[in-house]
């Protein structure tokens, strides 16, 4: 048995303009293009080595390998064959709690498998392949701000980095729950697409996608926050108006924090909220206000776990000793 090991690291990302719905489930093509910020503080390190069958360990705990096995088989059939793999991941982000753990996980896995097999793939190609494991993983290969083009087919749906910027953006991450959510992202998207407001959200999101790129280029943090908050809250409103089993990821703490964010903004702070598929709130602010906002939230919610996140790097390979 081959004792070769390849290890890759990828950071999670937070979508400022969301992906919420698929126009092609097999190819994982989204209904809208999306735009994200890669985060330095949250990441996944994944090592792959030959095994007797495809297996998955996350943080030293054996997991159901079904989703990973399906993805590895996709790579075997579409890029090149390789033996069964043992996948060992260290996740520095809560799993399935709305903090995009699948994004960093599938980006790191795709990169590690490519390295293991000596595939000479561009970032664009890695991004396109990772999309088949997790849509948001397309964006985790890139530093700072990245866009995922919705595309019309397998070749045209990929992510790429926006021009580098020294924008002093920060996120105050409010970790309300680190448990696995009751409604998966995939199921949530399918339900949300039954909302009578879904088509209108898609059209507005396309406009916001363009406006967000302009706001980033102009280094307008307030506009970035305003666009991100509206896009996210309108996305979550779709869940509440779904005709197929309406639902919400929000809990009472989510609502309380959203109210506090509005209060902070009215008091003159730069503070805008965004949320993915989970109850956790991320507050968009500037790096010089982040600690103050963190302190005010800690005062209001003493038991709340808070962390400041800043722009992160693209994926990398870790050399084995």
UniProtKB/TrEMBL annotation:
One of its GO terms (molecular function) is diphosphomevalonate decarboxylase activity. InterPro entries: GHMP_kinase_C_sf, Mev_decarb, Mev_diP_decarb, MVD-like_N, Mvd1_C, Ribosomal_Su5_D2-typ_SF, Ribsml_uS5_D2-typ_fold_subgr. Keywords: ATP-binding, Lipid biosynthesis, Lipid metabolism, Lyase, Nucleotide-binding. It is an enzyme of class 4 (lyase). Residues 172-303 form the Mvd1 C-terminal domain. One of its GO terms (cellular component) is cytosol. Its EC number is 4.1.1.33. GO terms for biological process: isopentenyl diphosphate biosynthetic process, mevalonate pathway. Residues 10-159 form the Diphosphomevalonate decarboxylase-like N-terminal domain. This is diphosphomevalonate decarboxylase. Belongs to the diphosphomevalonate decarboxylase family.
């Amino acid at each position: 048995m081959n004792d070769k090991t390849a290890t890759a690291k990828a950071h999670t990302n937070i979508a400022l303009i969301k992906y919420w719905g698929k126009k092609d489930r097999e190819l994982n093509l989204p209904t809208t293009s999306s735009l994200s910020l890669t985060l330095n503080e949250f990441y996944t390190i994944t090592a792959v080595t030959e095994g007797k069958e495809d297996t998955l360990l996350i943080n030293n705990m054996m997991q159901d390998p079904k989703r990973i096995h399906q993805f590895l088989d996709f790579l075997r059939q579409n890029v090149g064959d390789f033996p069964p793999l043992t996948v060992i991941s260290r996740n520095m982000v809560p799993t399935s709690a709305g903090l995009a753990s699948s994004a960093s996980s599938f980006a790191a896995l795709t990169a590690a498998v490519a390295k293991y097999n000596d595939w000479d793939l561009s970032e664009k190609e890695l991004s396109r392949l990772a999309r088949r494991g997790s849509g948001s993983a397309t964006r985790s290969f890139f530093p700072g701000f990245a866009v995922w083009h919705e595309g019309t087919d397998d070749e045209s749906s990929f992510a790429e980095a926006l021009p580098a910027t020294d924008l002093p953006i920060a996120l105050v991450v409010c970790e309300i729950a680190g448990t696995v959510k009751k409604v998966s992202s995939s199921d949530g998207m399918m339900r949300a697409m039954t909302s009578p407001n879904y088509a209108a959200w898609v059209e507005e999101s396309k406009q916001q996608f363009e406006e967000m790129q302009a706001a980033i280029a102009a280094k307008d943090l307030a506009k970035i926050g305003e666009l991100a908050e509206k896009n996210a809250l309108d996305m979550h409103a779709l869940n509440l108006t779904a005709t197929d089993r309406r639902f919400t990821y929000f809990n009472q703490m989510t609502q309380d924090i959203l109210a506090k964010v509005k209060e902070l903004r009215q008091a003159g702070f730069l503070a805008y909220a965004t949320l993915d598929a989970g109850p956790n709130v991320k507050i968009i602010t500037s790096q010089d206000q982040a600690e103050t906002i963190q302190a005010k939230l800690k005062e209001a919610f003493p038991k709340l776990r808070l962390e400041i996140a800043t722009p992160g790097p693209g994926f990398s390979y870790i050399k084995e000793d």
